Write the structure tokens for this entry.
Amino acid sequence: MLKSGWQRIVIKVGSALIAPQAKGCSTRYLLAIARFINECRQYGVQVVLVSSGSVAAGKAAIAFPHHPLPINIKQAMAAVGQTQMMATWSHLFDFRCAQILLTHDDLADRRRYLNIDNTLRTLLEHQVLPIVNENDSVATAELRVGDNDNLAAMVAILVDADALIICSDINGLYSANPRVDAAAQFIPRVKQITSDIYAMAGGSHHTIGTGGMVTKIQAAEKATRQGIDTLIINGQNTDSFETLLRGEPAGTLFVRQQDRRSAKKHWLLHSLKSQGSITLDAGAVQALLHKGASLLAKGVTAVNGQFDKGDAIWLCDGAGKQLAKGICQYSSTELLLIQGLHSQKISEILGFCPSEEVVHRDDIALNN
């Protein structure tokens, strides 16, 4: 079943698969993708779906004959098409789906980034399928991620995915455009993304999509650098998904450059500057070092320095030894008010409780 060790995957589906004729949503290609997602879940693999298609799905409702489309027309089409797209996906599953709409600002702002992370984490824990799209109905040029290939890579990094699967309309990467060059050779495996790999990619031949092979390689580069295997497969071919379910290679595999957990640990320990520290009681120290547990407010005995929600902080024992670094879910001001308290008391003190954990176990890197 899939590649050994894949426990969480992000699947990106483009406009050409959602609305092949740009006249509303079609299940022509989505049925096989939905079955694949369902099979993954049956085997205990968590899935996040990144789905383009809102503009393409809404084109039929907003008559506009000229190209390129003005931003207000695209936003109106997206507003109509997003509901159609979500309805189409929801009808294909017998479990709950959730809509997540993002802009570049959401991913760049550390508070919103952490809130998105918490939302996605909670949805996955409750077996809800998150369906992510760029918020095309409000995003302007300066707020756009730009394409959902790169958005999918950012989401894969955000949720600590093991793999990113990008569904295309060709089998994967070729040495040249196979639609115009009969001598183009299929590339089944890419160990490292270089300028030569980018040179093989051409632009998009679809008028309804924003990405081509170049954006898919960009996404693969982002993801593989963070320890995430990336696949480009033919989403129009049912066999692609059957092959993956058998644990066999399909499409082009871009090999991750390092272990995912090591990549995040290195990022936390060496790339993020600590803005403060907190001291843990003996029980919290044992849970942190030996059980891989999240840190709760009850285990915090002291707060040192000024830091904001989303900042990196040191987690220390009673002697001041820096045991780990983590991303804090609360500001220092808030943490001073709730330290030592049970999680159920947080709402009473602060008036809100964004997270029961002060630092989630996924956001902790031990300093050893």
About this structure: Residues 264-366 form a domain with the Archaeosine Trna-guanine Transglycosylase; Chain: A, domain 4 fold (CATH 2.30.130.10). The two ends are 34 Å apart (CA to CA). The CA atoms of residues 178 and 364 lie 45 Å apart.
